[in-house]
Amino acid sequence: MSAAAEGRPPAAAAAGEMVREATAWCALHGLVVGDRADPRSGTVPGVGLVHAPFSLLPTHLPESHWRQACELAPIFNELVDRVSLDGDFLQDSLSKTKQVDDFTSRLLEIHRKMMEINKEENIRLGLHRSDYMLDSETNSLLQIELNTISASFPGLGSLVSELHRTLIDQYGHLFCLDSKRVPGNEASSQFAKALARAWDEFNVDSAVIMMIVQPEERNMYDQYWLAKHLKESHGITTIRKTLSEVEAEGHVLPDGTLVIDGKTVSVVYFRAGYTPNDYPSEAEWAARLLLEQSSAVKCPSISYHLVGTKKIQQELARPNVLERFLENKEEITKIRKCFAGLWSLDDEEIVKSAIQKPELFVLKPQREGGGNNIYGIDVRETLIRLQKEGGDALAAYILMQRIFPKASLSNLVRGGVCHEALTISELGIYGAYLRNNDKVVMNEQSGYLMRTKVSSSDEGGVAAGFAVLDSLYLT
Ligand code: ADP
Ligand code: MG
Ligand code: MG
């Protein structure tokens, strides 16, 4: 029986069929993650796969905001590089955080050691993702954060755009959509290209690229996509090692060459090492130090990593700080325009306001990977508790203006089941930057990632289970 004869609107009838088409497409095209239900899915490739959670259709975004976000990517790339060169700025800005946050303190310790030996990083590779939300009240694109380490989903994000184009070509007439309005997304091949160019600059034909991974990683296919492009398009081999394997098997020759399994490593690409959980023992810290001491290209170097902390994001938003790092006034204006309100907790007035109106703020510790921020009434309780604790306890956090994007209805698909929900979205723009001494080899916007979550959820991460992968539809 046709949908019309059953009395259902054609779009609703098509939705069920679309979901099956879409999930089959995911399986056929590698838009997959390890399934939590299978205990081996995080360690054994090809076992226990499930389609990545996705939204059935792309999320609308005005073209002007899209252009604005794309234009910012090379400016942020350059900003990260410039800030990374100012070791004292990083150490000073994080000096109070260090007193109360062990993880940041350990990173700073490695950074300080490198400053002491005047460690030179001639080849500098950044693979970043700057995340934004569209604030509904002001209709402005505001930055949530800038990720300089382990920016995830360049692999799977590219595929979601392709999935959406395919679905729109097949079903778009039902929704009056045109697949050409979904921007192409080459994040996967562009990140691989940047890694390959860094390998070229390192200039040792037999060298490999080493991806630092967690011992268990259900998002491994996102990572394997980059390794596939590196092999197939650039003829470069990628090896995967955990920090503890690096500690056990790696060493640095007197000339700085990093060697593991008898192979020279040209580029170390971190997809682990961004959270305290990645350092369960001293062995992992020893590995991080060893990598930093080597002459391999680090993506990121310890200084690039520190530039991406939330404390530095807040410091850069203070008056006249951007001017220290960038000369071009137009670029400074563009960057400043996307900064939301950001405050250090030294500011007693703002702490008072946040205790009075906690719903207007987000309280953020120096953590990555989702699930760490504090919202709503918990902001008030935490601030009052930290104030009582006294000392520098507040310095572990920053305060940020809460951004309220406009909610819209979306169909979210997880585990083969589609749910309609009121959702909000976060746009991530990837950026790739490569410099060898004075020569800027690459400074590009490199694709995008849209993530969509139910509007009632505070947190964002896909891997953390809050959001689904999405793409965008230009309006
Ligand atoms: P992480 O490094 O853990 O990803 P984020 O700063 O990106 O930290 O915060 C995690 C999530 O919290 C974001 O993806 C977003 O959904 C939400 N979030 C963060 N900052 C804000 C904000 N200022 N307003 C509204 N939501 C926010
Ligand atoms: Mg982050
Ligand atoms: Mg984030």
From TrEMBL:
<feature type="binding site">
    <location>
        <begin position="400"/>
        <end position="403"/>
    </location>
    <ligand>
        <name>ATP</name>
    </ligand>
</feature>
<feature type="binding site">
    <location>
        <position position="129"/>
    </location>
    <ligand>
        <name>substrate</name>
    </ligand>
</feature>
<protein>
    <recommendedName>
        <fullName>Glutathione synthetase</fullName>
        <ecNumber>6.3.2.3</ecNumber>
    </recommendedName>
</protein>
<feature type="binding site">
    <location>
        <position position="145"/>
    </location>
    <ligand>
        <name>Mg(2+)</name>
    </ligand>
</feature>
<dbReference type="GO" id="GO:0009507">
    <property type="term" value="C:chloroplast"/>
</dbReference>
<feature type="binding site">
    <location>
        <position position="368"/>
    </location>
    <ligand>
        <name>Mg(2+)</name>
    </ligand>
</feature>
<keyword id="KW-0479">Metal-binding</keyword>
<dbReference type="GO" id="GO:0004363">
    <property type="term" value="F:glutathione synthase activity"/>
</dbReference>
<feature type="binding site">
    <location>
        <begin position="149"/>
        <end position="152"/>
    </location>
    <ligand>
        <name>substrate</name>
    </ligand>
</feature>
<feature type="binding site">
    <location>
        <position position="459"/>
    </location>
    <ligand>
        <name>ATP</name>
    </ligand>
</feature>
<feature type="binding site">
    <location>
        <position position="375"/>
    </location>
    <ligand>
        <name>ATP</name>
    </ligand>
</feature>
<keyword id="KW-0547">Nucleotide-binding</keyword>
<dbReference type="InterPro" id="IPR005615">
    <property type="entry name" value="Glutathione_synthase"/>
</dbReference>
<feature type="binding site">
    <location>
        <position position="451"/>
    </location>
    <ligand>
        <name>substrate</name>
    </ligand>
</feature>
<dbReference type="InterPro" id="IPR014042">
    <property type="entry name" value="Glutathione_synthase_a-hlx"/>
</dbReference>
<dbReference type="GO" id="GO:0043295">
    <property type="term" value="F:glutathione binding"/>
</dbReference>
<keyword id="KW-0067">ATP-binding</keyword>
<feature type="binding site">
    <location>
        <begin position="271"/>
        <end position="274"/>
    </location>
    <ligand>
        <name>substrate</name>
    </ligand>
</feature>
<feature type="binding site">
    <location>
        <position position="147"/>
    </location>
    <ligand>
        <name>Mg(2+)</name>
    </ligand>
</feature>
<dbReference type="GO" id="GO:0005524">
    <property type="term" value="F:ATP binding"/>
</dbReference>
<feature type="binding site">
    <location>
        <position position="453"/>
    </location>
    <ligand>
        <name>ATP</name>
    </ligand>
</feature>
<feature type="binding site">
    <location>
        <position position="310"/>
    </location>
    <ligand>
        <name>ATP</name>
    </ligand>
</feature>
<dbReference type="InterPro" id="IPR014049">
    <property type="entry name" value="Glutathione_synthase_N_euk"/>
</dbReference>
<comment type="subunit">
    <text>Homodimer.</text>
</comment>
<dbReference type="Pfam" id="PF03199">
    <property type="entry name" value="GSH_synthase"/>
</dbReference>
<keyword id="KW-0809">Transit peptide</keyword>
<feature type="binding site">
    <location>
        <begin position="462"/>
        <end position="463"/>
    </location>
    <ligand>
        <name>substrate</name>
    </ligand>
</feature>
<comment type="pathway">
    <text>Sulfur metabolism; glutathione biosynthesis; glutathione from L-cysteine and L-glutamate: step 2/2.</text>
</comment>
<dbReference type="InterPro" id="IPR016185">
    <property type="entry name" value="PreATP-grasp_dom_sf"/>
</dbReference>
<feature type="binding site">
    <location>
        <position position="145"/>
    </location>
    <ligand>
        <name>ATP</name>
    </ligand>
</feature>
<dbReference type="InterPro" id="IPR004887">
    <property type="entry name" value="GSH_synth_subst-bd"/>
</dbReference>
<keyword id="KW-0436">Ligase</keyword>
<comment type="similarity">
    <text>Belongs to the eukaryotic GSH synthase family.</text>
</comment>
<keyword id="KW-0460">Magnesium</keyword>
<keyword id="KW-0934">Plastid</keyword>
<dbReference type="Pfam" id="PF03917">
    <property type="entry name" value="GSH_synth_ATP"/>
</dbReference>
<keyword id="KW-0150">Chloroplast</keyword>
<feature type="binding site">
    <location>
        <begin position="217"/>
        <end position="219"/>
    </location>
    <ligand>
        <name>substrate</name>
    </ligand>
</feature>
<dbReference type="GO" id="GO:0000287">
    <property type="term" value="F:magnesium ion binding"/>
</dbReference>
<feature type="binding site">
    <location>
        <position position="426"/>
    </location>
    <ligand>
        <name>ATP</name>
    </ligand>
</feature>
<feature type="binding site">
    <location>
        <position position="223"/>
    </location>
    <ligand>
        <name>substrate</name>
    </ligand>
</feature>
<feature type="domain" description="Glutathione synthase substrate-binding">
    <location>
        <begin position="207"/>
        <end position="307"/>
    </location>
</feature>
